Amino acid sequence: MNLLQQTFIYKALQNDIFGRYVLSFVIIIGTVIPLLNVFAPEGSMFDITTFTMTLMGKILCFAILALALDLVWGYCGILSLGHGAFFSLGGYAMGMYLMRQIGDRGVYGNPELPDFMVFLNWDALPWYWYGFDSFGFALLMVFLAPGILAFVFGWMAFRSRVTGVYFSIITQALTFALMQAFFMNKLGFGGNNGLTDFKDILGFNIQSDETRSVLVFTAALVLCITYFVCKYIVSSKFGKVLVSIRDAESRTRFLGYRVEHYKLLVFTFSAIVAGVAGAIYVPLVGAANPSEFSPINSIGIVIWVALGGRGTLYGAIIGALVIGYAKSYFTTSFPDLWLYILGGLFVLTTMYLPEGIAGRLEQLRQKRNGSKNDPSTPAKNAELEVAK
Predict the structure, then answer these.
(1) Confidence at residue 388, expressed as pLDDT on a 0 to 100 scale
(2) What is the pTM of this model?
């Protein structure tokens, strides 16, 4: 066995045909589009506008977020309606760093306080803003802010054995409460307007095409790395226990596994991944707004995963790409119809495509190869063995 075959990346993708296709497409988006935007002559047939490039970067961030949800919902059965909160917390952590980089270039010219604090007559920088002048500290907070919240929240919920729809409701209540809190001016996060007017990141102009190109490439790279890590997790013994918890939690607990610990670990990791997605998203869009905490956004993530096919990982990426592009098109061409289209799409997926796009692709592949290994075959074989 050569060195390549010993890597976890090779093992993760060994039997993942569609995953390889999806990641290849992601790599093309993350490399070719930024290169064409920067180097292709303006007005030529190969020219990619900054708007298009930024849009693709945003959709790649959504794909990372969809992966995070698919890991806990598709493989552990934890339907979270609060992942939008973790996404937003990671975004705000990065946004606070970007606000500190403005310095005296703001409207009021205060080198220490952001403009919204000067406008609201704040006398000093709040203690929880300390350290955000350092990119390293901000990056640490991108991990810790959603991670700690998910750990504390998950510890209380899983310890109390809150599951199913009840867990979904309290996660939605969590994100709604955070949205209301971040809308308040006195909390110190910009209130209704959020954090805006960013100037640069790591010394580079955040509005330049070159910087945006690097951000889009970073989003694609993080998406690929996240996919590899998630695929490795679900392919390991840990992942098999997660699936066991999803399918038969009581039986798994009876076998001696600490179900709460497994749930807590995967839920916390998923929240951190969602926070990283938000941290890349905020520099791309140029703002961190409390509306990102809206419960409808978290519900939208569920629709991405359901459409793409939960429990496949690559299906979550497909769903995010499809709905992300569709949202951009329909909100521009038919803005009043988008929510109806999204709701109708979810209903149609539930009724006629319960396994999502990924499930349909697997069926077509099996049909093409003449395979009889449908999902029910192992169970049927087991029944035959018992009967004998």
Answers:
(1) 39
(2) 0.90
